[in-house]
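hey
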């Protein structure tokens, strides 16, 4: 049997595993069709595959906010060879404070509080504190419960591990200068995790799937807004692309990868996942297959539309 491996697309090495589209006019590596609701394209764009160069800025050139680096001397800066006086140091002369009272002795701190402050008429008299009946009850409960505490809980103390929450995964992101599409896929890597996976058959890329939260794909968000009958809360995850190379089709790889992605979305806390296939598009031109495929993957028709039906699967 062939060896099946599924890889998260989070690094440039993994990005290099994205399979080619069956139609050479399109390219997963340069597609921003779902990320840009207005001008997004599925087209193959070689310029997107070149590493992005980080801008270099020489001294004195304008910065990102239009300012120049300080190269001229600052007339208001203190002289480096004249140390600033320390007003709290012992045994050093201090500048006179015109607002300080006259010290009674040479050891008194002229900046300290008044040794004989005026009495506070609103302060309770010393020794006149009345015991609180609640304090007595709390102490009585503490005597019965050795784990009880008389102190208020620390609201800023670190929260312990939640045994019911999914464990966080540390995901390595792309480095600076990564290809533009990889940067799009890595936008939410620190919070959501990966946005794409590739299925390999004996080490060769066969199937690609792109997914993520609804907020990551404005075109999907726009399509969903057309159907007010869809549940507004909780918002679902979406699958915006599933594609298999021409050589690896009809082997069940796409279904396997979709099931894997749905399992991962459930692990990340989503209650449902949606996809928006396009009716009438050719097999090699659509990025989200056909409704019949999604039916085999456990999805049902949430909105029956003649152009863009909504397929939904509860997780």
């Amino acid at each position: 049997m062939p060896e099946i491996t599924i890889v998260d697309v989070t690094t440039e090495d993994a990005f290099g595993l994205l399979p080619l589209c069956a139609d050479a006019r399109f390219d997963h590596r340069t597609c921003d069709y779902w990320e840009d609701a207005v001008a997004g394209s599925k087209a193959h764009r070689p310029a997107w595959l070149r590493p992005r160069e980080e801008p270099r800025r020489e001294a004195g050139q304008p910065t990102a906010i239009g300012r120049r680096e300080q190269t001229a001397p600052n007339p208001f800066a203190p002289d480096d060879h004249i140390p600033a006086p320390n007003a709290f140091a012992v045994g050093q002369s201090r500048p006179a404070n015109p607002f300080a009272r006259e010290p009674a002795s040479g050891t008194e701190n002229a900046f300290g509080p008044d040794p004989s402050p005026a009495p506070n008429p609103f302060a309770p008299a010393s020794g006149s504190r009345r015991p609180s009946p609640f304090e007595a009850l709390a102490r009585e409960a503490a005597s019965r419960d050795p784990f009880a505490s008389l102190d208020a809980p620390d609201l800023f103390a670190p929260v312990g591990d939640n045994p019911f929450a999914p464990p966080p995964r540390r995901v390595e992101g792309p480095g600076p200068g990564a290809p533009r599409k990889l940067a799009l896929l890595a936008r939410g890597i620190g919070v959501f995790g990966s946005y794409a996976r590739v299925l390999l058959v004996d080490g060769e890329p066969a199937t690609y799937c792109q997914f993520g939260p609804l907020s990551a794909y404005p075109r999907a968000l726009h399509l969903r807004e057309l159907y007010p009958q869809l549940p507004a809360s909780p918002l679902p995850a979406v699958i915006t692309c599933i594609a298999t190379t021409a050589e690896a089709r009809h082997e069940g790889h796409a279904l396997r990868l979709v099931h894997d992605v749905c399992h991962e979305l459930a692990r990340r806390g989503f209650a449902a996942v949606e996809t928006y296939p396009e009716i009438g598009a050719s097999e090699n031109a659509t990025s989200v297959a056909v409704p019949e495929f999604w039916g085999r993957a456990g999805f049902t028709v949430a909105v029956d539309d003649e152009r863009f039906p909504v397929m939904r699967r509860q997780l």
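The chain is about 15% helix and 15% strand. The domain at 4-49+171-314 is CATH 3.40.630.30 (Aminopeptidase).
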